[in-house]
Amino acid sequence: MGEADNVRAVERLVTGLNAKDVEVMNEVFVDDSILSWPQSGEIIRGRENRQGIYRAFPSLPTITPYRTVSSGDLVISEAELDYGTETYQVVFIFECRDGKIVRETAYWAKPFPAPEWRAKWVGRA
User: Fold this and answer.
1) What's the Cα-to-Cα distance from 89 to each of 33, 63, 68, 117, rounded to whole Å?
2) Which residue of 9, 71, 103, 108 has the smallest Cβ count within 10 Å?
3) Residue 120 pLDDT > 80, yes or no?
4) pLDDT > 90? residue 124
5) What pLDDT does residue 15 have?
6) 63 with 17: CB under 8 angstroms?
7) What pLDDT score was predicted for residue 76?
8) How many CA atoms lie within 13 A of 45 on its CB side?
9) What integer best gives the mean pLDDT of the chain?
10) Terminal CA-CA length for the chain
11) Burial category of 18 from C-beta neighbours within 10 Å (exposed 0-12, middle 13-18, buried 19 and up)
12) Which of 93, 119, 118, 94 is nearest to 107 (CA)?
């Protein structure tokens, strides 16, 4: 298994979570995976804790990836998370082995308006 298998695992994760199928995580993560959320300081270790967190979410967001790059065992995905009332920009760093996710690190940011003083030097996405 190689890089393409790792990308497919990440794509399967997004598709499954968007369908509100938390069980998809058991297909694409190794049982002793680690989820790391540096902004809140949380580390979720293993299948049971991962499943417990995702089953308890009041409402899973819709994940819209807009850029995914990979190299070897790393898959990086930039995406938008839409919770219905709030939207976040997120960067996911997936570390993979043999087509399964071993570690996911996620960074979230709320969008903010660009200041007008920079307008003459920048484009708009």
Assistant:
1) 23, 10, 14, 23
2) 71
3) yes
4) no
5) 97
6) yes
7) 98
8) 0
9) 94
10) 35
11) middle
12) 93
Identity at 58, one-letter amino acid code? P
Q: How far apart are CA 114 and CA 124, in angstroms?
A: 9
**Domain covering 3-109 assigned CATH 1.20.1200.10 in the classification:** no
Task: Give mean pLDDT, residues 49-59.
Answer: 91
Inter-residue contact 26 to 47 (CB < 8 Å): yes
Q: What DSSP designation does 13 have? A: H
pLDDT at residue 17, rounded to an integer: 96
50 Cβ partners below 8 Å, 6+ apart? 25, 29, 33, 35, 44
pLDDT of residue 123: 84
Q: Which amino acid type is present at position 13?
A: L
Compute the radius of gyration of the chain from its Cα atoms. Answer: 16
